[in-house]
Known about the structure:
By secondary structure, the chain is mainly β. The chain is built from no helices and 11 strands.
Amino acid sequence: QVRVVESGGGSVQAGGSRTLSxxxxxxxxxxxxxxxxxxxxxxxxxxxxxxxxxxxxxxxDSVKGRFSISRNNAKTTxxxxxxxxxxxxxxxxxxxxxxxxxxxxxxxxTQVTVSS
Length: 116
């Protein structure tokens, strides 16, 4: 079983910055892709950023230039650094981790609220 836990959500003023952190723990030898999705009420969950074990990064066009993602393979952690936040970035951010050969594991989500 893989447990994924996010932290770092909260309220921030527009133009501000925030870093979300996530750690995967449990019984696995290694973790493959890790990343972040976000969901706004009434809308589908959308990919924000992902990073492979080999550090290949994918960033959504809507946050490109403002968000960055990094990971630590030894600690099985992934961080999402967000700057110049906008009201449209408000939502619940979910971290995921892909243990090879097993189903994707999701965190419980962390709320980010950007006020203008």
